[in-house]
C-alpha cells in the first residue's frame, strides 16, 4: 500500500507541521486552500502559538501583532489540531511522527544567534539581542535572564529590525511603553533603568543601513530620547545606490536631518554609528569597554564591502547586545546544513546528501535563512505546500491515522498537551489582565503559570 493508494485514497491527507509561527500557519492555510481533504496537526514546543509574532515582534508594534487574528481563522478549520507544549525530538521522535503522518513540514525557525567571534564576547554584560527581546516579550525561555540596566551606556551591534527594536525599547520612556504588551517585570526594570547613551552600530555605511525610514525616524519622535548621527560619510558608490534605491534615499533624508540637528538636552541619546566593526569587548570580570575598528567601503554600487582600516576607538559601555543574524539548530532525525544553519532543501523538499527525503518538507527561516518580513513566509509556505502536493503520488502513507492515539501516547509520557482551545482561554485571561492596567495584554511568562490558570 504505497503511492497509488495514497494518491487515490478517500482518507484525508495527514500532515504534521512542526512550529506554530507565521510560516507554519501559512503552510496550514495553503494546505486547506488546496480543496483536498486534509488533517493538519501543528506541534509547538511552547505552550502558546504564533512563534516570533508573540515572542519576537516588538511589544510596542501592536498593529503588526494584529495579524494573529488571521491565524486564529486558519485554526478554526475542522481539520486543524494544535499540540502545544510538545517538543519534537524530546516528547516525540521524528520516526514516531512519520508513523502518524503522510508528510512532515518543519517550520521551526532559526532559534540561535550568530556570534561575533571576538575576544571578550562571553563576558558578563554581553548578550544576544534574542535574549533581551525574549525577556521583555515574555518568552518562557528567557525569563531568568538578568540585564544590568544600572549601566549608563549600551552598545547594540547590528542595524536590522531586531537591533532597532532593542534600541527603541531602551530609549522609550515607561509611559510610552505602557501602551504595549511588554511584561510587567520588564517594565519595572526599564522604569528603573539608568541607561542614557545607546550606540546603534553598523559595519557598513548609511546607504546600506538595514533599517527602514519609519524605524529610524521614530528615534526622533520619542519623549525622553533624541538621535545623534556624529558622522555621515558617503562615497560616489553610495550616492549611486541612493539614487537607485528608494529605501536608501528615504533613510538618508532622515539621517541627514539628524546629522544637522543640535541636541535639545533630553535624558537619553541614541548614537547611530556607521562604518564600525567590533574587534574586542574588554573589562575586569564584566563588560566595561567595546573596541571598534573603523571601516572603509570598496567595490561597485550595490556590492560594496566593508573592510577595516586599522584605526580603532573605544566606547565605555557596560552592556553589549549583538544582533548580527540568526541560524537554525539541528533536530535529531532531520538533515542539517551546519554552514548555513538551515535544513537543506530544494523548493521546500528536504534533501539528504542532495537526495530528497520522502515525506519531509521545510518552510520559513529554517528553509531559506533569516530573511524577509512576516508576509514573506506566505509565498515561501505556498511553494513548500505545492511541492508536497506534487509529491503525493510518491508519498508513503502513514500506518497510524488517528491523532487520538498520539494524544494517548503523549499522556502516557506525562506530557501536558495544550490545545487551541486552551490558548483561547489564555488569550482571554491575558487580555483581561492587561485591561486592568491599561495594556493590550499582560502575558503569562511560564508554563507553570499557564497550567495553573488552566487548572491542569
Write the layout of secondary structure elements.
Blueprint: H1 3-8, E1 13-18, H2 22-32, E2 38-44, H3 52-55, H4 62-65, H5 68-75, E3 80-84, H6 94-100, E4 103-106, E5 112-113, E6 126-128, H7 129-136, E7 153-157, H8 161-171, H9 174-177, H10 184-191, E8 197-201, H11 213-218, E9 225-228, H12 236-244, H13 246-260, E10 268-273, E11 276-282, E12 289-298, E13 305-315, E14 319-322, E15 326-327, E16 345-346, E17 349-352, E18 355-362, H14 365-368, H15 376-390, H16 403-412, H17 420-436, H18 447-453
Parallel strand pairs: 1-2, 1-4, 2-3, 4-18, 6-14, 7-8, 7-14, 8-10, 9-10
Antiparallel strand pairs: 5-15, 11-12, 12-13, 16-17, 17-18
Helix pairs in contact: 2-15, 7-8, 12-13
Q: Can you put this structure into words, describing what you see?
A:
With 456 residues, this protein is of the alpha/beta class. It folds into 2 domains: 3-111 and 327-418, NAD(P)-binding Rossmann-like Domain (Rossmann fold, 3-Layer(aba) Sandwich); 115-324, 3-Layer(bba) Sandwich (FAD/NAD(P)-binding domain), CATH 3.50.50. The chain is built from 18 helices and 18 strands. The strands form 4 sheets. Strands 3-2-1-4-18-17-16 form a 7-stranded mixed beta sheet, sandwiched between helices. Helix 2 crosses helix 15, helix 7 packs across helix 8 (161-171) and helix 12 (236-244) packs across helix 13 (246-260). The longest helix is centred in the C-terminal third of the chain and has 17 residues, at 420-436. The radius of gyration is 24 Å and the shape is globular. The model has no long low-confidence stretch (mean pLDDT 93).
Amino acid at each position: 500500500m504505497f503511492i497509488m493508494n495514497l494518491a487515490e485514497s478517500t482518507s484525508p491527507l495527514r500532515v504534521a507541521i512542526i512550529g506554530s509561527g507565521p510560516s507554519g500557519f501559512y503552510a496550514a492555510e495553503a494546505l486547506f486552500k488546496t480543496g483536498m481533504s486534509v488533517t493538519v496537526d501543528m506541534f509547538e514546543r511552547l505552550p502558546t502559538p504564533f512563534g516570533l509574532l508573540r515572542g519576537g515582534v516588538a511589544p510596542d508594534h501592536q498593529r503588526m501583532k494584529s495579524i494573529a487574528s488571521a491565524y486564529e481563522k486558519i485554526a478554526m478549520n475542522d481539520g486543524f489540531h494544535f499540540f502545544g507544549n510538545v517538543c519534537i525530538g524530546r516528547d516525540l521522535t521524528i520516526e514516531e511522527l512519520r508513523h502518524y503522518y503522510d508528510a512532515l513540514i518543519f517550520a521551526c525557525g532559526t532559534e540561535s544567534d550568530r556570534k561575533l567571534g571576538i575576544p571578550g564576547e562571553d563576558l558578563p554584560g554581553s548578550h544576544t539581542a534574542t535574549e533581551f527581546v525574549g525577556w521583555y516579550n515574555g518568552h518562557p525561555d528567557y525569563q531568568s535572564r538578568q540585564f544590568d540596566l544600572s549601566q549608563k551606556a549600551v552598545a547594540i551591534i547590528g542595524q536590522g529590525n531586531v537591533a532597532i527594536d532593542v534600541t527603541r525599547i531602551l530609549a522609550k520612556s515607561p509611559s510610552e511603553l505602557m501602551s504595549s504588551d511588554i511584561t510587567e517585570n520588564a517594565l519595572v526594570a526599564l522604569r528603573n533603568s539608568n541607561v542614557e547613551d545607546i550606540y546603534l552600530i553598523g559595519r557598513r555605511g548609511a546607504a546600506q543601513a538595514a533599517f527602514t525610514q519609519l524605524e529610524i525616524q521614530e528615534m526622533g519622535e520619542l519623549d525622553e530620547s533624541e538621535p545623534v548621527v556624529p558622522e555621515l560619510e558617503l562615497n560616489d558608490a553610495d550616492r549611486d545606490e541612493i539614487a537607485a534605491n528608494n529605501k536608501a534615499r528615504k533613510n538618508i533624508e532622515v539621517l541627514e536631518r539628524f546629522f544637522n540637528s543640535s541636541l535639545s538636552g533630553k535624558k537619553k541619546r541614541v548614537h547611530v554609528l556607521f562604518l564600525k566593526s567590533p574587534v574586542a569587548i574588554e573589562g575586569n570580570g564584566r563588560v566595561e569597554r567595546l573596541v571598534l575598528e573603523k571601516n572603509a567601503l570598496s567595490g561597485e554600487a550595490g556590492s560594496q564591502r566593508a573592510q577595516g582600516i586599522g584605526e580603532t576607538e573605544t566606547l565605555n559601555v557596560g552592556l553589549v547586545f549583538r544582533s548580527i543574524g540568526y541560524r537554525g539548530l539541528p533536530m535529531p532525525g532531520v538533515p542539517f546544513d551546519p554552514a548555513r544553519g538551515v535544513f537543506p532543501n530544494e523548493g521546500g523538499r528536504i534533501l539528504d546528501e542532495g537526495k530528497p527525503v520522502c515525506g519531509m518538507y521545510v518552510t520559513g527561516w529554517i528553509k531559506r535563512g533569516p530573511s524577509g518580513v512576516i508576509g514573506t513566509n506566505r509565498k515561501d509556505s505556498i511553494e513548500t505546500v505545492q511541492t508536497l502536493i506534487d509529491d503525493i503520488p510518491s508519498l508513503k502513507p502513514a500506518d497510524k491515522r488517528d491523532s487520538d492515539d498520539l494524544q494517548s501516547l503523549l499522556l502516557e509520557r506525562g506530557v501536558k498537551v495544550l490545545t487551541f482551545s486552551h490558548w483561547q482561554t489564555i488569550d482571554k485571561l491575558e487580555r483581561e489582565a492587561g485591561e486592568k492596567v491599561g495594556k493590550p495584554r499582560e502575558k503569562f511568562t511560564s508554563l507553570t503559570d499557564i497550567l495553573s490558570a488552566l487548572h491542569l
